[in-house]
Amino acid sequence: MLDLPLPPGWGTLDAMTPVPSTPDPESGPPTRPATGRRRADAVPALSIGGVEDVRPGALLVAMPTLSDPTFAGTVVYVLDHTDTGTLGVVLGRPSQVEIRDVLPGWCDYAVDPGVFHVGGPCETDTALCLATAPADVAGDGTGLRRVAGDVHLVDLDGDPAELAGQLTGLRVFAGYAGWSLGQLATEIADGAWACVPGRPGDVLSAMAGPRLWRAVMGRQTGRLAVLSTAPADPSAN
Q: From CA 87, how far away is CA 147, in angstroms rounded?
Protein backbone atom coordinates (compact mmCIF):
# COMPACT_ATOMS: atom_id res chain seq x y z
CA MET A 1 0.00 0.00 0.00
CA LEU A 2 1.42 3.34 -1.04
CA ASP A 3 0.52 6.91 -0.18
CA LEU A 4 0.26 7.79 -3.87
CA PRO A 5 -0.19 11.33 -5.16
CA LEU A 6 -3.67 11.83 -6.55
CA PRO A 7 -3.98 12.37 -10.31
CA PRO A 8 -4.08 15.96 -11.55
CA GLY A 9 -7.48 17.27 -12.52
CA TRP A 10 -9.36 15.46 -9.77
CA GLY A 11 -10.78 18.71 -8.50
CA THR A 12 -11.40 18.51 -4.78
CA LEU A 13 -9.10 15.51 -4.46
CA ASP A 14 -6.09 17.78 -4.98
CA ALA A 15 -7.02 19.76 -1.85
CA MET A 16 -9.39 17.55 0.04
CA THR A 17 -11.52 18.79 2.91
CA PRO A 18 -9.97 18.37 6.39
CA VAL A 19 -11.78 15.88 8.60
CA PRO A 20 -11.51 15.62 12.39
CA SER A 21 -10.14 12.33 13.65
CA THR A 22 -13.00 10.58 15.46
CA PRO A 23 -13.02 7.04 14.08
CA ASP A 24 -15.48 4.29 14.80
CA PRO A 25 -13.90 2.08 17.48
CA GLU A 26 -14.52 -1.07 15.48
CA SER A 27 -13.69 0.07 11.97
CA GLY A 28 -11.75 3.32 12.13
CA PRO A 29 -8.54 4.09 10.27
CA PRO A 30 -5.35 2.29 11.27
CA THR A 31 -3.14 3.80 13.94
CA ARG A 32 -0.06 3.31 11.76
CA PRO A 33 0.47 3.84 8.05
CA ALA A 34 -0.10 0.75 5.94
CA THR A 35 3.22 -0.28 4.41
CA GLY A 36 2.05 -3.49 2.82
CA ARG A 37 -0.05 -6.47 3.75
CA ARG A 38 0.37 -9.64 5.74
CA ARG A 39 -1.19 -12.73 4.28
CA ALA A 40 -1.45 -16.36 5.14
CA ASP A 41 0.15 -19.04 2.97
CA ALA A 42 -0.52 -18.29 -0.67
CA VAL A 43 -3.30 -20.12 -2.45
CA PRO A 44 -3.62 -20.68 -6.19
CA ALA A 45 -4.78 -17.55 -7.96
CA LEU A 46 -8.44 -17.40 -8.86
CA SER A 47 -9.30 -17.91 -12.49
CA ILE A 48 -11.28 -14.64 -12.58
CA GLY A 49 -10.75 -11.14 -11.38
CA GLY A 50 -7.15 -10.55 -12.49
CA VAL A 51 -5.39 -7.20 -12.75
CA GLU A 52 -6.66 -6.90 -16.33
CA ASP A 53 -10.14 -6.50 -14.85
CA VAL A 54 -9.18 -3.57 -12.61
CA ARG A 55 -10.81 -0.38 -13.86
CA PRO A 56 -12.79 2.54 -12.42
CA GLY A 57 -16.05 1.21 -11.00
CA ALA A 58 -14.71 -2.30 -10.31
CA LEU A 59 -14.45 -3.80 -6.83
CA LEU A 60 -11.38 -5.28 -5.19
CA VAL A 61 -12.64 -7.91 -2.75
CA ALA A 62 -10.27 -9.12 -0.04
CA MET A 63 -9.77 -12.88 -0.04
CA PRO A 64 -9.71 -14.83 3.26
CA THR A 65 -5.91 -15.22 2.87
CA LEU A 66 -5.40 -11.47 3.29
CA SER A 67 -4.75 -10.98 6.99
CA ASP A 68 -3.55 -7.36 7.11
CA PRO A 69 -6.05 -5.84 9.58
CA THR A 70 -6.26 -2.70 7.45
CA PHE A 71 -7.82 -4.64 4.56
CA ALA A 72 -9.01 -8.00 5.90
CA GLY A 73 -12.63 -8.52 4.91
CA THR A 74 -12.88 -5.33 2.88
CA VAL A 75 -14.44 -4.30 -0.41
CA VAL A 76 -12.63 -1.49 -2.25
CA TYR A 77 -14.30 0.59 -4.96
CA VAL A 78 -11.76 1.48 -7.67
CA LEU A 79 -11.64 5.19 -8.54
CA ASP A 80 -8.68 5.28 -10.91
CA HIS A 81 -6.36 2.75 -12.54
CA THR A 82 -3.46 3.87 -14.73
CA ASP A 83 0.15 2.99 -15.46
CA THR A 84 1.15 4.90 -12.33
CA GLY A 85 -1.07 3.03 -9.86
CA THR A 86 -4.53 2.35 -8.53
CA LEU A 87 -6.70 4.43 -6.22
CA GLY A 88 -9.88 3.41 -4.44
CA VAL A 89 -11.97 3.73 -1.31
CA VAL A 90 -12.88 1.06 1.20
CA LEU A 91 -16.66 0.64 1.37
CA GLY A 92 -18.75 -0.14 4.43
CA ARG A 93 -16.61 1.38 7.21
CA PRO A 94 -18.67 4.10 8.90
CA SER A 95 -16.99 6.36 11.44
CA GLN A 96 -18.58 8.42 14.21
CA VAL A 97 -17.94 11.76 12.50
CA GLU A 98 -21.21 13.36 11.42
CA ILE A 99 -21.17 14.98 7.97
CA ARG A 100 -23.32 17.84 9.27
CA ASP A 101 -20.58 18.75 11.76
CA VAL A 102 -17.94 19.20 9.03
CA LEU A 103 -19.80 19.77 5.74
CA PRO A 104 -23.24 21.06 6.76
CA GLY A 105 -24.11 22.10 3.23
CA TRP A 106 -23.80 18.55 1.96
CA CYS A 107 -25.47 16.58 4.75
CA ASP A 108 -28.94 16.73 3.21
CA TYR A 109 -27.70 14.82 0.16
CA ALA A 110 -26.04 12.04 2.17
CA VAL A 111 -27.60 8.62 2.55
CA ASP A 112 -27.93 7.01 5.98
CA PRO A 113 -25.93 6.79 8.08
CA GLY A 114 -24.96 10.44 7.57
CA VAL A 115 -21.38 9.98 8.72
CA PHE A 116 -17.95 9.91 7.14
CA HIS A 117 -16.82 6.47 5.99
CA VAL A 118 -13.19 5.43 6.41
CA GLY A 119 -11.94 5.18 2.82
CA GLY A 120 -8.45 3.87 3.53
CA PRO A 121 -5.15 4.46 5.28
CA CYS A 122 -3.88 7.27 3.01
CA GLU A 123 -4.53 10.91 4.03
CA THR A 124 -7.15 9.98 6.62
CA ASP A 125 -7.53 13.62 7.69
CA THR A 126 -8.95 14.61 4.30
CA ALA A 127 -12.21 13.83 2.53
CA LEU A 128 -13.50 12.88 -0.89
CA CYS A 129 -17.08 12.47 -1.95
CA LEU A 130 -18.89 10.01 -4.23
CA ALA A 131 -22.46 10.43 -5.39
CA THR A 132 -24.86 8.69 -7.73
CA ALA A 133 -26.57 10.68 -10.46
CA PRO A 134 -27.65 10.00 -14.05
CA ALA A 135 -24.53 9.67 -16.18
CA ASP A 136 -25.55 12.55 -18.44
CA VAL A 137 -25.59 15.18 -15.66
CA ALA A 138 -21.82 15.40 -15.28
CA GLY A 139 -19.96 17.98 -17.32
CA ASP A 140 -18.04 21.21 -17.16
CA GLY A 141 -19.23 23.42 -14.35
CA THR A 142 -21.45 20.81 -12.69
CA GLY A 143 -19.08 19.99 -9.83
CA LEU A 144 -19.22 16.31 -10.80
CA ARG A 145 -16.68 14.04 -12.45
CA ARG A 146 -17.87 10.65 -13.66
CA VAL A 147 -16.04 7.61 -12.30
CA ALA A 148 -18.11 4.83 -13.86
CA GLY A 149 -21.78 4.45 -14.73
CA ASP A 150 -23.87 6.64 -12.44
CA VAL A 151 -21.08 7.13 -9.87
CA HIS A 152 -19.40 10.54 -9.79
CA LEU A 153 -16.80 12.37 -7.75
CA VAL A 154 -18.20 15.52 -6.17
CA ASP A 155 -16.31 18.79 -5.78
CA LEU A 156 -16.89 19.56 -2.11
CA ASP A 157 -15.64 23.09 -2.64
CA GLY A 158 -18.62 23.77 -4.89
CA ASP A 159 -22.08 25.02 -4.01
CA PRO A 160 -24.36 22.13 -2.94
CA ALA A 161 -27.41 24.06 -4.12
CA GLU A 162 -26.19 23.79 -7.72
CA LEU A 163 -26.68 20.00 -7.56
CA ALA A 164 -30.18 20.10 -6.09
CA GLY A 165 -32.41 17.58 -7.82
CA GLN A 166 -29.49 15.97 -9.67
CA LEU A 167 -28.06 13.60 -7.04
CA THR A 168 -29.74 10.37 -6.01
CA GLY A 169 -27.39 9.77 -3.09
CA LEU A 170 -24.05 10.83 -1.65
CA ARG A 171 -21.35 9.44 0.64
CA VAL A 172 -18.24 11.14 2.02
CA PHE A 173 -15.03 9.21 2.70
CA ALA A 174 -12.11 10.08 4.96
CA GLY A 175 -8.91 8.90 3.28
CA TYR A 176 -8.36 6.50 0.42
CA ALA A 177 -6.36 3.40 -0.58
CA GLY A 178 -3.54 3.40 -3.13
CA TRP A 179 -1.25 0.85 -4.80
CA SER A 180 1.51 0.95 -7.35
CA LEU A 181 0.54 -0.99 -10.46
CA GLY A 182 3.10 -3.72 -9.88
CA GLN A 183 2.18 -4.06 -6.22
CA LEU A 184 -1.51 -4.59 -6.88
CA ALA A 185 -0.80 -7.03 -9.71
CA THR A 186 1.39 -9.10 -7.38
CA GLU A 187 -1.21 -9.14 -4.62
CA ILE A 188 -3.93 -10.25 -7.04
CA ALA A 189 -1.68 -12.96 -8.48
CA ASP A 190 -0.99 -14.18 -4.94
CA GLY A 191 -4.71 -14.58 -4.33
CA ALA A 192 -5.05 -11.68 -1.87
CA TRP A 193 -7.71 -9.89 -3.95
CA ALA A 194 -10.35 -10.75 -6.51
CA CYS A 195 -11.54 -8.07 -8.90
CA VAL A 196 -15.26 -8.20 -9.68
CA PRO A 197 -17.76 -5.84 -11.35
CA GLY A 198 -19.15 -3.11 -9.14
CA ARG A 199 -22.60 -1.55 -9.02
CA PRO A 200 -23.55 2.06 -8.24
CA GLY A 201 -25.52 0.82 -5.24
CA ASP A 202 -22.36 -0.63 -3.69
CA VAL A 203 -21.01 2.87 -3.03
CA LEU A 204 -24.12 3.87 -1.05
CA SER A 205 -24.90 0.50 0.51
CA ALA A 206 -26.11 0.58 4.12
CA MET A 207 -24.34 -2.73 4.72
CA ALA A 208 -21.03 -2.57 6.54
CA GLY A 209 -18.04 -4.84 7.04
CA PRO A 210 -18.70 -8.58 6.71
CA ARG A 211 -22.30 -8.08 5.52
CA LEU A 212 -21.19 -6.07 2.50
CA TRP A 213 -18.34 -8.51 1.78
CA ARG A 214 -20.72 -11.48 1.82
CA ALA A 215 -23.29 -9.68 -0.30
CA VAL A 216 -20.73 -8.88 -3.00
CA MET A 217 -19.26 -12.39 -2.92
CA GLY A 218 -22.69 -13.98 -2.90
CA ARG A 219 -23.64 -12.47 -6.25
CA GLN A 220 -20.56 -13.99 -7.92
CA THR A 221 -20.29 -17.45 -9.45
CA GLY A 222 -18.13 -20.49 -8.85
CA ARG A 223 -15.50 -20.43 -6.13
CA LEU A 224 -16.17 -16.82 -5.17
CA ALA A 225 -19.81 -17.59 -4.45
CA VAL A 226 -18.76 -20.51 -2.26
CA LEU A 227 -16.38 -18.25 -0.35
CA SER A 228 -19.29 -15.98 0.55
CA THR A 229 -20.09 -18.36 3.42
CA ALA A 230 -16.53 -18.13 4.82
CA PRO A 231 -15.48 -15.52 7.40
CA ALA A 232 -14.54 -12.27 5.66
CA ASP A 233 -11.78 -11.75 8.21
CA PRO A 234 -9.53 -14.80 8.71
CA SER A 235 -9.01 -13.84 12.35
CA ALA A 236 -12.67 -14.79 12.88
CA ASN A 237 -11.83 -18.44 12.26
A: 12
